[in-house]
Amino acid sequence: MHQPAPSTDLRHRTVEAPAGRLHLVEQGTGPLVLLVHGFPESWYSWRRQLPALAAAGYRAVAFDVRGYGRSSRPAATDAYRMLDLVEDNLALVRALDEECAVIVGHDWGSGIAAASALLHPEVFRAVGLLSVPYAPPGGPRPSDVFAQMGGDQEFYVSYFQEPGRAEAEMEPDLRGWLAGFYAAVSADTMPADGEPDPHFVARAGGRLRDRFPCDRLPAWLTEDDLDVYAGEFERTGMTGALNRYRNMDRDWEDLAGYGGAPIEVPSLFIGGALDASTTWMTDAIDAFPVTLPGLVSSHILDGCGHWVQQERPEEVNHLLIDWLASLRS
User: Fold this and answer.
1) Spatial contact of 130 and 272, defined as CB atoms under 8 Å apart
2) pLDDT at residue 3 above 50?
3) In 83, 91, 93, 139, which residue has its Cα 20 to 30 A from 148's Cα atom?
4) pTM assigned to the model
5) Backbone φ and ψ of 225, nearest 5°
6) Contact 38, 56 (CB under 8 A)
């Protein structure tokens, strides 16, 4: 006899949002924890956190950011500016019939989560940042900074700027490109010291994938996991995901009024010791006492790369749940 699914099973649905629709996956009941993925991922990057948070007494919700998966993909490049993504998060909280949420993000999701807590602390009552530390708005124009990086090589963010250019590299073999990209910044498969850095491309006709590992998957990524990611991007293409990078100067302009502003709500940071996002931004981490005055704890995971919640799910779950418990005390 068929038994009804337990209440903690994953529940998929879509809700209305400024972009059209957002696809979300939720598990559990209790205080809302909103999980925001990065590039090039989807809600699926939180598959190991959803059941753990649900079991700990939280309503865990992971969703596809606009441009990804089963969420809407506006055609206009400027529809992916940070202010619009923050509005999506507000709409999502309302659609879930909640007044507030703890928001946790990884990679670009970390930046989206940080901006959400900065602009709307009355809704996003605490913020967890994974892999990418908070750096307040301000400073030089981002495109100028990226253009100066790498010398005779081109930084990947600059490479992503021109519509269609990176897509032409990625889309003919999305599964292979994704496998290489995930491996390139995972602790157990990243290039060794002295090998070409996969964050840069040769300026004369270079491709990012020329520097990716091509013969192995990281331990955290199964063939089935790769099928999930590849299947989504084969259906949607990469433009929606890449458009986030194409709005960095717009974000710089939009958030100019928040130059140097700290995030006041309780916060958490988890980074990988082998992740360039951590090592390149040590100054931002050192500035946390000023920029994150509500910081509860900060953790650098030894021997971990960029995909922290997938490379180290049990450790990250433990840190998240301990932090969430501190917010309830």
Assistant:
1) no
2) no
3) 83
4) 0.96
5) -60, -45
6) no
